[in-house]
Amino acid sequence: MTTALIIGGGVAGPASAMALQKAGYDPVVFEAYDRGAEGVGTNLVLAVNGHTALHELGISTALDKGFDIPRNRYFMGNGRSLSLVPNGKAGPNGIVSRAVRRADLYVALRDEAIRRGIPFEFGMRLVDAEHTPNGVVGHFENGRKVDGDLLIGADGLHSTVRKIIDPEAPRPRFGRLVNTGGYADGVSAPGEPGTEYMLLGKRCFFSYVHDADGQIWWYAAPHWPEEPTREELAAIGPDEWRGRLLELFSQDKTAARDIIAATEDIWAPWPIQDLPTVPAWQDRRMVIMGDAAHAVSPAAGQGASMAIEDSVVLGKCLRDIPDVEEALGRFVSLRRPRVEKMVAFGKRAGDLMIVSSQFRRRMRDLVLPLFFKRVTLNETASLSWVYDHRERWDEPISAPRIAA
Ligand SMILES: Cc1cc2nc3c(=O)[nH]c(=O)nc-3n(C[C@H](O)[C@H](O)[C@H](O)COP(=O)(O)OP(=O)(O)OC[C@H]3O[C@@H](n4cnc5c(N)ncnc54)[C@H](O)[C@@H]3O)c2cc1C
């Protein structure tokens, strides 16, 4: 068997491990933290393209604890409805975009990988790696060294493997926004389950969904002109942060303030970042994937989908191309155009959320209705490249890609 050392037990790590196992490889996953993601409070919407890719790997049960979000509805801060936009066309078997708590997704992916016999090693932080005459060796913080035939860096935005492959690799770019959010109980907000409400507030973007039990999941993206330091953000206490958010939405005629007030634990702010172009994804038998190679702004709602699509393509390349280095090179050339286009899309979406001045807000309020008119009239043409992309496990890697 050919052993693949997979660094990172988030989304890309377990998903690619299961794809490689299907391809006949022997993957082992190494996660820096002790038990992974149980304490991660945030959530995400896995778009229909990523959901379909999970299905192709036979692991869409990882979303069992989530709920479907087939639609987005946009409102201006003054309460004016802009548009109802499908969250991508339904895929095979009626698959649509689905919201899930991040911890539920991570734990379900990990448990399914373990159930399929894939070893997971926790408390294993990779600090270095090198090539050997026959493969690779990974060096871990606890002093252990592990040999393998190839090494896959699925170690997220602040990837160590990216820096091992290229010490000059770019660092993440700050999107001039921070992220925050939470879960609100016992508050009524307009709308129904199945729709994500996007509120383009006068001073800040706000989004919420109703889960099946009546809880409201929300996030907001306040503008932050300069990249904050960790210390700067840590110095903002929970009460001060709640007060600042309530003030940010005080001019809007939406449910944002009620939802914030009804949230017990509001997530402390953290910077929104992306990673536009990483020149080197591969060095011989080492490669990066997922956020390590191409983090997309959360504004696109596509980062996890890109990581899962990567997993399908990486598994297919290793299945169909006998030479490992050639297979990794093929993976990079197949994925780079799509993910870099997605990062650019996410940047534009994030920039639309920035309300740094009244002038900028007025421009946004002029441009957005036109944009939504175009999307509503011609949804297939304008966003189908995002949502209708399908990575099919059963197609050979050389087959031309067919849009759904
Ligand atoms: C606020 C926010 C909202 C988002 N919303 C969405 C959304 O709605 N839809 C969507 O599709 N995407 C969303 N994303 C993006 C999505 O979360 C990421 O794209 C996705 O998690 C990437 O998966 P990954 O496995 O590449 O990285 P991660 O999920 O970050 O996993 C990396 C793993 O590697 C481990 N690790 C790191 N360094 C090492 C090391 N040296 N050794 C061993 N292990 C290591 C980490 O502990 C972690 O478990 C959002 C992101 C953010 C920040």
From TrEMBL:
- Does the UniProt entry include the keyword Oxidoreductase? yes
Q: Which Gene3D superfamilies match?
A: FAD/NAD(P)-binding domain (3.50.50.60)
Q: Which UniProt keywords apply?
A: Monooxygenase, Oxidoreductase
The record's section on Pfam families has: FAD_binding_3 (PF01494)
Top-rank lineage group of the source organism: Bacteria
Using the record's annotation, list all stretches that form the FAD-binding domain: 2-344
Protein name per UniProt:
FAD-dependent oxidoreductase
